[in-house]
From TrEMBL:
The modification 4-aspartylphosphate is found at residue 55. This is LuxR family transcriptional regulator. The keyword Ribonucleoprotein does not apply. The keyword Transcription applies. GO terms for biological process: phosphorelay signal transduction system; regulation of DNA-templated transcription. Residues 148-213 form the HTH luxR-type domain. InterPro entries: CheY-like_superfamily, NreC/VraR/RcsB-like_REC, Sig_transdc_resp-reg_C-effctor, Sig_transdc_resp-reg_receiver, Tscrpt_reg_LuxR_C, WalR-like. Pfam families: GerE, Response_reg. PANTHER family: TRANSCRIPTIONAL REGULATORY PROTEIN NARL-RELATED (PTHR43214:SF24), TWO-COMPONENT RESPONSE REGULATOR (PTHR43214). Keywords: DNA-binding, Phosphoprotein, Transcription, Transcription regulation. GO terms for molecular function: DNA binding. Residues 4-122 form the Response regulatory domain.
């Protein structure tokens, strides 16, 4: 299956470079380019995109609000958002995750890593850039935020274990190995957990785990 990618960045050279990179992958195609957040939302509604690569700082409408509008649109339920950040200046990355982004990367990511990230997020997995940026998320998740639709108290003991492992960055195979389950059973638990909590993907599960206190910042 070809992954249909929409690119949103206010810098033309950066956007064109991303477009050339995406088009070089045999399993991807660029279906549109946006220079503002408002254009990104409009294109997401008119072009058959699977994923939006979203810059945060753009004129007219920033990437966080654009992400929020895409995530809130029922007609765009299948569209994932991968946010890019410059790390030192874009500390509102957590707001992007809360708005509905499925993951993020820093802009100095190697080309091959960006392509892998697109594949990962398009497949429904959460992707959080490692190292300092992950610690940035932990620090900002200590701050108060709006309550989630449902908390871990609605989960079974097994589902709480699964949620904790998702928050620690484990994929389905690693969760299965950790809990002595089959990969299919682990995947089923993850899906049921998302359903009970009313979230759209694994990135949102991470947010729930931190904000509910199930996983403490610095100990994930």
């Amino acid at each position: 299956m070809t992954i249909r990618v929409l690119l949103a960045d206010d810098q033309t050279l950066v956007r064109e470079a991303f477009a050339m990179l995406v088009e070089s992958a045999p399993d991807m195609e660029v279906v549109g380019q946006a220079a503002t957040g408002r254009q990104a939302v409009e294109l997401a509604r008119t072009e058959p995109a699977d994923l939006v690569v979203m810059d945060i700082r753009m004129p007219d409408l920033d990437g966080i609000e654009a992400t929020r509008r895409i995530a809130a649109d029922d007609d765009l339920a299948g569209v994932k958002v991968l946010v890019l950040t410059t790390y030192d200046t874009d500390e509102n990355i957590v707001d992007a995750l809360r708005a509905g982004a499925s993951g993020f990367l820093v802009k100095d990511t190697r080309p091959a890593e960006l392509l892998d990230a697109i594949r990962t997020v398009a497949a429904g997995e959460a992707l959080l850039s490692p190292g300092p940026t992950a610690r940035l998320i932990e620090r900002f998740l200590r701050s108060p935020s709006a309550p989630v639709a449902a908390g871990p108290e609605c989960l079974s003991d097994r589902e709480r274990e699964v949620l904790t492992l998702v928050a620690r960055g484990l994929n389905n195979t690693e969760i299965a190995e950790s809990l002595g389950l089959s990969p299919l059973t682990a995947k089923t638990h993850v899906s049921r957990t998302m359903g009970k909590l009313g979230v759209r993907d694994r990135a949102q599960l991470v947010i729930v785990a931190y904000e509910s206190g199930l996983v403490a910042p610095g100990r994930a």
